[in-house]
Amino acid sequence: MTDDRSPSGATAGSPAPPPTTGRSFLDDAVAARGAVGFVAVGDRFDADLRYLTRFEGSEDDHAYVRTPDADVLCAPPGHVARATRQFDGRVASDRPGDHPGERAVAALDASIAGESEGTSESGTADSQTVLVPPSIPHDAAVYLERAGYELRSTTAVADARATKADGELEAIRAVQRAAVGGVRRAERVLAAAERDQSGGLRLDDGALTAERLRRVVNAELARCGVGDAGNTVVVAGSTGDGGTETEPIATDEPVRIDVAPRGPHGYHGFRSRTVVVDSDGGWERRAYVAVEAALEAALDEVESGADADDVRREADAELAAFGFDPTGGERGSAEGDSDPSETGHGVGLSRRERPFLRASETLEVGSVLAVAPGLTDSEHGSVRLGDLVVVTEAGYELLGDGTRSFTPRA
Amino acid sequence: MTDDRSPSGATAGSPAPPPTTGRSFLDDAVAARGAVGFVAVGDRFDADLRYLTRFEGSEDDHAYVRTPDADVLCAPPGHVARATRQFDGRVASDRPGDHPGERAVAALDASIAGESEGTSESGTADSQTVLVPPSIPHDAAVYLERAGYELRSTTAVADARATKADGELEAIRAVQRAAVGGVRRAERVLAAAERDQSGGLRLDDGALTAERLRRVVNAELARCGVGDAGNTVVVAGSTGDGGTETEPIATDEPVRIDVAPRGPHGYHGFRSRTVVVDSDGGWERRAYVAVEAALEAALDEVESGADADDVRREADAELAAFGFDPTGGERGSAEGDSDPSETGHGVGLSRRERPFLRASETLEVGSVLAVAPGLTDSEHGSVRLGDLVVVTEAGYELLGDGTRSFTPRA
């Protein structure tokens, strides 16, 4: 039963408690806009709500309401005990059939009624403005508007999420250990695979396909206690979409492995590596050297205060210096969920979040960034190298080890 | 390397193509409401958009627009090639920075302009009503409203999703094979585990905890090519939240295993089993017998035309007949994502969707239903048995085998 072991070092021991990130920044946003409160509504896939409440959520929409006097999670029926355990504010139970928009209105009304009875010192009691995230569900927004509230959208939560607190970094470090382990596992399997007479890889008397290697990676992630979250991509050569091909991986083609697993408190990791079992020194070798240089150049730009777009520009410039076209359409877009035409992006409760590598974004201490330049060629395949870093006072720190190898290591 | 094999039979061979479910039902809904079209906006977690377009999506919101003359997916930059491969209508590329609401407006405007130039025979050209799902993001709704469109919400997509087409059933059967394999794996590991002197289970010289067993299940699901989707729950005894405990599973406590993995085209499976390694015939044995009877009674109610709430009522009546309180608060709500107080629910692109087991719902041919009664006791733990079925002309058909055993089988 040696295949059911947990690998040593990977998320071993007791899991850390969920990050505590606070919600007082919402009070500042509410005060600055002269609003009466903040409302968010969403389901378990809503990263803003997860950030604010740490409630794992359900398929049913739930609401979070904050005013100077209230800090309430309106939990769906059947989830109140769990919500109470996970959320450190007050939990109100929805009645079955209640819409979370109705519940949010009730919580807002109650809070404002309470405030007006007291000796309110703020001048906001007359205002009926409520801040909401831009993508609040329209039906919930309509409930709020019909109750007399005027909605103003706020990016306060996305802004707060763009730099990570220590507890968040700890969660990301934990899932990143698994990400490193998952990719390393693929490398080992490739190194140990046998080859058939036509240059295809074999494992246990069967063809080693990209899909089979993807399953190997995902099983390793599961053993480490994290979920692949549907984000694992294995591309071998130019075979396109990894999920549909049944051909064995060829010894001379680049094998690109991207992972972005999701760990216990909902935080993602990120890692991208490319290896070639037996390269003939052609396109894949030249591309690898260029992408490696691009990764180093991009990482050199990562520091507090840097323009995020410079990270992308430096990577592109390096690829161009090696004679590649860094803007050649959708590089590698044929491979599942990821968009390898992006040189990088923030990582956290969403697989892909702020900061994005564009001119309007500035890197700050606590920004967590996937830096992952790549090249795709319609004939030869795809090469990508990506690391996860956190911006520090001194520059940046790698999350997970930065080792890489063109030839898979045993 | 025998631990990297794919188990025989589980999603082996070439994956089936994505289900083709058609979108003409939207034209009926649009015509019936005198609207000019239908618009949906969402990200990769939006099951309605997945159903309509089969596009796997991205973190960025994208829009789908349908009018009598248009059938357009507005894909985020960098995802156009993949969207074109996955969606069988027309794909329009968003410009970076465009809001999907803007793109939807542009597609609607273009379609209506084209229609008014032709010899329109319909009387709808004057209407500016647009149908949208109730939870369309508010910012997208505001773009549509500012462009002069009046929004009316429609449940047409949820209604269509509530009964499954053959291709959808094929996808569910595939993921369900993996669900069965994952639970079976846990059973085998429990059967093979050794016991320490104090009645705790051990595996490979380490304690076999609920968390470790959860990882075993998830690794097996990954080997079968499906994702656990964060839905695997293993509860041993009354230790509560499976993820935080480090105690070995005791031989005499019930071990409940719930899985709801997600397969290649986004469809979910469902299975719940409970086993006891070495029962002393106490609460867990009585609860098992009652839950087994409740499952059979509930399944007996499943047929086309049945009131969905009767399925729940029959299960509760059977539990009551065995002397248990079926309405005792949040039964087992301490265990991760699932809500075992629910006797059942529909399963499809969402883990939990229509039909729900309530009075307003009627089962139809093609309804796919998780039927899973359970009992939780604060002292002894949790017992649940759940199968996945599809309603047929003749009654129902089990998806995945219906075998179950109180004692784990080797």
Structure characterization notes:
Two copies of one chain form a homodimer. In chain A, the strands form five sheets. A six-stranded mixed beta sheet of chain A has the order 4-3-2-1-5-6, sandwiched between helices. Chain A has a five-stranded antiparallel beta sheet with strand order 14-13-15-18-19. A three-stranded antiparallel beta sheet of chain A has the order 7-8-9, covered by helices on one side. In chain A, helix 4 runs parallel beside helix 5 and helix 7 (166-192) packs across helix 8. Chain A has helices at residues 24-32, 47-53, 80-86, 100-117, 138-146, 156-161, 166-192, 210-223, 283-300, 308-321, and strands at 37-42, 62-67, 70-75, 90-93, 129-132, 150-153, 194-195, 201-203, 206-207, 233-236, 255-259, 271-275, 344-346, 353-356, 368-371, 374-377, 381-384, 387-392, 395-399. Helices cover 31% and strands 20% of the residues of chain A. Chain A is α+β, with helices and mostly antiparallel strands and 410 residues long. The first copy, chain A, has two domains: 24-161, 3-Layer(aba) Sandwich (Creatine Amidinohydrolase, Chain A, domain 1), CATH 3.40.350; 166-399, Creatine Amidinohydrolase, CATH 3.90.230. At the A-B interface, helix 3, helix 5 and helix 8 of A face helix 3, helix 5 and helix 8 of B.
